[in-house]
Specification:
16-stranded mixed sheet, 4-stranded antiparallel sheet, Peptidase A1 domain-containing protein
Length: 483
């Protein structure tokens, strides 16, 4: 059969007509005909509906790893797999989630927009550590959480996971005033009850290394401040204590922010783990133990779980030999926190879009805190047109736009949903072929336009679902069907 778009659509229409006749008793049933069409994926419509039952695997079933590693369980904060300590507050509305997501995306694009020259390849990267992670709402957007223990004796903390920031922090007693700490389910961390806690002194090297996160000194204690893209912020005392990731993995003298005043969209969770590229992040602080590499797998649904792992994946022979498709990690001179790769092409329904490489020249930020992927306007327009064309033969009723998402459908009454596949290709040929959960979110095409042609793109967490994403000093690797 011809692989041209016209021939494919004709084949799809014929399949639908024949299957419709079969359903009326005129022809034998032909369920699955659409599934045999190259470049398309068919899933149960029920798979898009949330489940109230957690289908989490045994945490001991995490992927095998060489050397020392720490693995944490990752879950959706408001789903049935959430830790019992996670917020009991209602999940934000879709509209609120997408508004906060837009603020975050705009903030990231502003930060990286000053990187004048083309990015150049980085150089660099031992043991490994894993922590369970959960899908949550970080700073107002759809993110993921893990549970670790802080202090001696250890106190469990449910923490957002963010590759787009560096400094980790928790809410601490006392608050600056009665309204300075937001509501959380756990008691506030009390540094006076930890025998291993210490405030970082102003004159020390750790305080000097805070850089853009520094906020001066008070009573000889080093102050910190972190401001996020949606206007939220946390401020307090830069501190050190023992961070226990798993029964066999503890980070002595872990540097974090002991937050005494928080404002903005934080709700319920105890704090945040920063996984960015600067030295103050968890990745930077544990580089001697875990080699400066980490990986994560974001679960496809709130009713399933993923993982966050510090250290190298198992199997030996490098990421490529372990089943990862790898692409080069690039620097961002104006925003060194971010992990940046080079998107080179997009295909829909197995057909490459006619988008020139210059459209993606600004690079792509890999970010767990952004929900839907942002593309330069021309690239998004080409993706949207091809996707709408691929879906058209099935006659799904359109639904109203949902905030920043402008290609939405009503699947009520359908037993199955057939979609054209979407694949993202990066430099060195690394390709992410997305499943249905990576194509649609909230009933809409989970992509949006942002910035300008040739500017920065953002790979959001919807498109990263179910892939193990491995990041080290030189590359980012993607391994499908990993959680």
């Amino acid at each position: 059969m011809s692989s041209s778009p016209v021939a494919r659509r004709a084949h799809l229409l014929l399949s639908l007509l024949l299957c419709g006749a079969g359903a009326l008793g005129f022809l034998p049933s032909c369920h699955g005909a659409a599934e045999e069409t190259p470049g398309y994926v068919t899933v149960s419509a029920a798979s898009f509906k949330p489940s109230s039952i957690c289908s989490a695997p045994d945490p001991a079933a995490a992927p095998p790893r060489n050397g020392r590693s720490a693995v944490l369980r990752l879950t959706h904060r408001h789903g049935p797999c959430a830790p019992s300590r996670a917020s009991s507050l209602a999940a934000p509305s879709v509209a609120d989630t997408l508004r906060a997501d837009q603020r975050r995306a705009e903030y990231i694009l502003r930060r990286v927009s000053g990187a004048g020259a083309q990015p150049q390849l980085l150089g660099s990267s031992k043991a490994s550590a894993s922590v369970p992670a959960s899908w949550g709402y970080d700073i107002g957007t759809l993110n993921y959480v893990v549970t670790a223990s802080l202090g001696t004796p250890g106190v469990a903390q449910t923490l957002e996971v963010d590759t787009g920031s560096d400094l980790s922090w928790v809410q601490c007693k006392p608050c600056a005033d009665g309204s300075s700490c937001y509501s959380q389910k756990d008691p506030l961390f009390d540094p006076s009850q930890s025998s291993s806690y210490a405030a970082v002194p102003c004159g020390g090297s750790a305080c000097a290394a805070l850089g853009m996160y520094a906020s001066g000194c008070s009573a000889s204690q080093c102050g910190y401040v972190v401001s996020y893209g949606d206007g939220s912020n946390t401020t307090g005392v830069y501190s050190s204590d023992t961070l226990t990731l798993s029964p066999t993995d503890a980070v002595q003298g872990f540097l974090f922010g002991c937050g005494h005043a928080q404002t903005g969209l934080f709700t319920g969770i105890d704090g945040l783990i920063g996984l960015g590229r600067l030295q103050v992040s968890l990745v930077g602080q544990t580089a001697a133990a875990y080699g400066g590499s980490f990986s994560y797998c974001l679960p496809t649904k709130p009713s399933t779980t993923g993982y966050l792992a510090l250290g190298s994946s198992g199997g030996g022979g490098g990421a490529a030999a372990q089943g990862f498709a790898t692409t080069q990690l690039l620097p961002s001179p104006s925003a060194p926190t971010y992990y940046i790769v080079m998107l080179t092409g997009i295909s829909v329904g197995g057909q490459q879009l006619s988008v020139p490489p210059s459209e993606f020249a600004g690079g792509t930020v890999v970010d767990t805190g952004t929900v839907v992927t942002r593309l330069p306007p021309s690239a998004y327009a080409a993706l949207r047109a091809a996707f709408r064309s691929g879906v058209a033969p099935y006659g799904y009723p359109p639904a109203p736009p949902n905030g920043i998402l402008d290609t939405c459908y009503n699947f009520a009454g359908y037993g199955t949903v057939t979609l054209p596949t979407v694949a993202l290709t990066f430099s060195s040929g690394a390709t992410l072929t997305l499943g249905a959960d990576g194509i649609l979110s909230f009933g809409c095409l989970a992509f949006a336009p942002s910035g300008s042609d040739g500017g920065m793109a953002i790979l959001g967490n919807v498109q990263q679902r179910s892939f193990e994403v491995r990041i080290d000093g030189t590359s980012v690797g993607f391994k499908p069907s990993s959680c």
